[in-house]
Amino acid sequence: MLYFIISAVCGIGGGIVSSHTFKEYTLGNLGNVVTGFLGGVATHTIIVLVMGGTAWTFAIVGGFLGGFLVRIAFSIIRQRISSDS
Question: Which of 2, 32, 64, 77 lies at a CB distance of 3.0 to 4.6 Å from 15, suitable for a disulfide?
Answer without folding.
Answer: 32
